[in-house]
Amino acid sequence: MASNLRLTVSCPDRKGLISALSSFISMHDGNILSADQYVSDGGTFFMRLEIEGDGFGLDRDEFAGAFVPLARRHGMDWHVSHTDTPKKMAILVSRYDHCLADLLWRWDAGELGAEIPLVVSNHPDLAPRAESHGVPFHHLPVTGETKAEQESRVLDLLFENEVDVVVLARYMQILTPKFVDAYRGRLINIHHSFLPAFAGADPYRRAHERGVKTIGATAHYVSEELDAGPIIHQDVAHVSHRDTVGDLVRVGREVERRVLARAVRLHLEDRILVDGDRTVVFE
Amino acid sequence: MASNLRLTVSCPDRKGLISALSSFISMHDGNILSADQYVSDGGTFFMRLEIEGDGFGLDRDEFAGAFVPLARRHGMDWHVSHTDTPKKMAILVSRYDHCLADLLWRWDAGELGAEIPLVVSNHPDLAPRAESHGVPFHHLPVTGETKAEQESRVLDLLFENEVDVVVLARYMQILTPKFVDAYRGRLINIHHSFLPAFAGADPYRRAHERGVKTIGATAHYVSEELDAGPIIHQDVAHVSHRDTVGDLVRVGREVERRVLARAVRLHLEDRILVDGDRTVVFE
Amino acid sequence: MASNLRLTVSCPDRKGLISALSSFISMHDGNILSADQYVSDGGTFFMRLEIEGDGFGLDRDEFAGAFVPLARRHGMDWHVSHTDTPKKMAILVSRYDHCLADLLWRWDAGELGAEIPLVVSNHPDLAPRAESHGVPFHHLPVTGETKAEQESRVLDLLFENEVDVVVLARYMQILTPKFVDAYRGRLINIHHSFLPAFAGADPYRRAHERGVKTIGATAHYVSEELDAGPIIHQDVAHVSHRDTVGDLVRVGREVERRVLARAVRLHLEDRILVDGDRTVVFE
Amino acid sequence: MASNLRLTVSCPDRKGLISALSSFISMHDGNILSADQYVSDGGTFFMRLEIEGDGFGLDRDEFAGAFVPLARRHGMDWHVSHTDTPKKMAILVSRYDHCLADLLWRWDAGELGAEIPLVVSNHPDLAPRAESHGVPFHHLPVTGETKAEQESRVLDLLFENEVDVVVLARYMQILTPKFVDAYRGRLINIHHSFLPAFAGADPYRRAHERGVKTIGATAHYVSEELDAGPIIHQDVAHVSHRDTVGDLVRVGREVERRVLARAVRLHLEDRILVDGDRTVVFE
Questions:
Q1: From the list B97, B132, B283, which residue is nearest C132 (CB)?
Q2: 3-state SS class at C1
Q3: Could you give phi then psi for residue C254, rounded to 5 degrees?
Q4: Edge to edge, what strands does the sheet with C31-39 contain?
Q5: pLDDT in tens, D121-131
């Protein structure tokens, strides 16, 4: 069975774009399995097409050559991926294991169509967890003085492993603009509050002090500004006056891992397109 | 400003359908505002297109003539509606007013792009409610003996008012197959349980006896079999041992009106296509 | 049938408080219908008791006299209410009608055990809505210059009507500390965001700009600081990139009215005790 | 630090029960940390008390002797547990690992105050999972002919390990009345539908065929009748026409593990009292 294709496109909106794209596929005997489309208020056209590989007239090496003239004519940003070539995903963690454990369990269960060539951490604690799933674990400790150097070594590891997407699964280090830039739009963080509430440190403690009745979690792409990148997914849980900070942490873990897992799956299936500070999510 | 068009299509799936449809629009200088598409497991293709009226080369009278050859070639079921021609919606009620009150409030608030030419009831109680919104109220009482006759009179009223869609907002009468057939796919009921649990009478009492921890509501198209038609939308609320049957009724009212309102809005915006016993809902 | 009593108590925690309270009830032949209790981290004891009026040995006039010695001994803040004496609730509105319409509908449906002696607004628009439910409507317009004077007139109206609780059902005026103080712990506001996110003006527009994937609403007691008072209840709804600011407003209305109605019902049933900047909610 | 006590009581309702219970505690210098109470429609009184061990005048061996006269006078069913004596919980599984993995992760994270002396399965597959958490795994295969014998061996293992509570974490065998009776009220099952909908086999396939828009999971105590025992907790997730049976399974796993974990935690904290076919859950 041939690999299917996922084509994502964004460009200035104009008449005839769906027709141009679908006709291009048809012309090459392609069968469109699913199509999602959206035009933003700002006049940008977004489309995601899933094309059956079986019977499609363009093979992997020919696609770009055939598609570029059309893309150029309409000023398209575009990306194509192949379902038989799973993305390479690295997971960065510190000491909390709930998001890592959940991602690895889902990966084993076949929920995530990805390879996980490595887990990187600034602490040694989670090595057994990664290794029990057969994933190499790299311990790169960091101090105030070695921050730049440690981050370079992390980046080197990611490059060596040809990593496509980096997941910060409660990685408690702020990344430099250089790192953010290297993985812009491919660097997913989970923040343990419903942003923009409680950006920054210690959101559960602050939520408890404020006496909120819902807590939440936010998965977002990382940008230069802390906890301010494009939001991918959010969810909440109800809490009550009886819940201590510790209860919020426990309940929150549940929300965090669920929200992060969904964001990761959406990214791996090429369902997220970035629209400035916002995301277009085709579910 | 010209009226926009909403085109819904279903037909056996084959290659090139999106291209055929979008090229037809392009050929007539149409701008596609939104496109949703789905292929069922059973191999049926479904599509909904919203086309900008401004600049579109086919006016209202010309569309069918131009589209029929394409539709015929692919064996399409299709329907076109125009955003400046709101659907005519009748609401059938008995004595409970929460769904009626909610629909009428939303209508006043401009949430529902519909006309409401009449409310029909087998009881006189809700006349003031309808009339306070300026909607004519018809009281057609029914007994075991007059059931067939009363229903005929209801149907006559609907036909006279050229009603497009009928909403059973807690109408406590079972309709005959004749009625169901006349408004198949355009007859929406709200059932006060998460179907298929507690189909039939008195679901809240039965839910309480069973000791469930969630109650729900289901909006569905009516079919010949009681509470078994295609489901449009469902939602639930959490309840506890403290909740009496009366509490379930109160909490349930909230869910019922929310679920019904959403189903009605989806129908009015031509976002629901029926796929046998199931629905395709393009949100 | 005699009226039941609701007794709420808070005081410094110590051993024997539940015993002291329940024995006091027992000693006077009272039957406790429900009891809820909580001790905060800060060491404050909170309790709510519902006592059957039938057979209780203390009548309305005797209760305080009998209870005061116990209350004094433990330094209790306490409040007793009688289920046959509904609270008097005033609703303040501006132009948005969804919260008002919902509260009035629930009131008519018997969900709220309260009297509504008046609706007050700085705009005339919602007079017909209030009057269709038989509730007197007072139009007290306000300008920058007349703010203090208008507020005094509102307070006069509330005092004349012996109002127990004031609901700001999207009342678009900031109240002075004098007003807040007069109804501290009895002044409920609905804010159209999940606080502390998007406190202040225009939360839906700001939520849209930020690209959040959930929006929410918060019911809280009003304090001197804008949108910072003790939170009573919060809920959220999921939104997507497709939702315009107008969609957020529509979806948000649904959440606002639900959250406000719940907070109002909890308050009317004496289920909320204020604990500094937080609330204890016995559901 | 002394161990706290949790006392649960049910008996026919009458005046003075809270007073009698709390005075008993006070008389022995006990401090009540939390108290929950409920009277059912059927006139049964339920109470849960958490008592500080520090300073309490009755030690573990003395409690029963001191309490029995009071319990007898009111016809109380009662149970006391001590927070420093965690319950012994056995987990029975077949081949699906999501519920097991989740429970073991939570156990490691300290969310569950229990010991897990063993995991039992009719298949060998999940041995590594249990053993990676240091929990002994017993493989007891079963066929139609050996069913009674295998179940006896399971029961023997549970008795040998002094197991207090048995969790069926997707154990795909129907238990005999003998087993059910041995662990009545201490035998928790997770069913992968919102009961009473889709009781029995293959709920996701049937849910897909019915075209429901929500799927759910139900944690309940096991009774003789299949999927009909007292419900502890339920939750749902929204699904759409796009979701295949496989998607329902994936989404459902998420709901199942969340619902089961919550039910288990509630049971371990003595927060559930059985009221005939229903449960009283003090959260």
A1: B132
A2: coil
A3: -60, -45
A4: C77-82, C5-12, C44-52, C31-39, D31-39, D44-52, D5-12, D77-82
A5: 999 999 999 99
Q: Which residue of B has its CA nearest to C98?
A: B105
Strand ranges, E, within D40-112: 44-52, 77-82, 87-93
State the Cα–Cα distance between residues D153 and D176, nearest whole angstrom.
Answer: 13
Chain B neighbours among D 176-215 (CB < 8 Å)? 194-198, 209-214
Q: What is the pLDDT of residues D229-249, one digit of tens each?
A: 999 999 999 999 999 999 999
Residue reference for tokens 């059912």: D40
pLDDT tens sequence across D6-62: 999 999 999 999 999 999 999 999 999 999 999 999 999 999 999 999 999 999 999
Among the listed residues B44, B39, B25, the one whose alpha carbon sits nearest the alpha carbon of residue A35? B39
pLDDT surpassing 70 at residue A99: yes
- Put simply, the answer to whether B105 touches C109 (Cβ < 8 Å) is no
Give B212's DSSP letter: -
Under an 8 A CB cutoff, do D253 and A109 touch?
yes
Complete domains list, chain D, with CATH: 5-82 (3.30.70.260), 87-281 (3.40.50.170)
Which of C99, C105, C243, C256 to mutate to test binding with chain B, by most B CBs within 10 Å of its CB? Answer: C105
The per-residue pLDDT for A1 is 62
C259 three-class SS: helix
* Residues of chain A positioned with their CB less than 8 A from the CB of B30: 15
pLDDT in tens, A210-233: 999 999 999 999 999 989 999 999
In this predicted model, what pLDDT tens digit does every residue of A40-80 receive, in sequence order?
Answer: 999 999 999 999 999 999 999 999 999 999 999 999 999 99
Residues of B tagged active-site: 227
Collect all residues with Cβ–Cβ distance below 8 Å to A167 and sequence separation of at least 6.
A89, A90, A91, A92, A103, A188, A260, A264
Q: What percent of chain D has pLDDT over 70?
A: 100
- Using a pLDDT cut of 70, give the percent of chain C over it: 100
Q: CA B157, B160, B161 angle in degrees (round to 5)?
A: 85
The whole-number pLDDT of residue D1 equals: 63
Whether pTM exceeds 0.80 = yes
Asked if the Cβ–Cβ distance from A19 to B15 is below 8 Å, we say no
Residue C2: the pLDDT is: 76
Using the Cβ of D263 and the Cβ atoms of chain B, whether some distance falls under 8 Å is answered with no
How many residues can be counted in chain B?
A: 283
Residue ranges, chain C, pLDDT below 70: 1
The three-point CA angle A278-A281-A282 to 5° equals: 155
Interface contact A83, partner B, CB < 8 A: no
**pLDDT score of A2:** 76
Spell out, as residue ranges, where chain B has pLDDT lower than 50: none
SS3 state at D163? coil
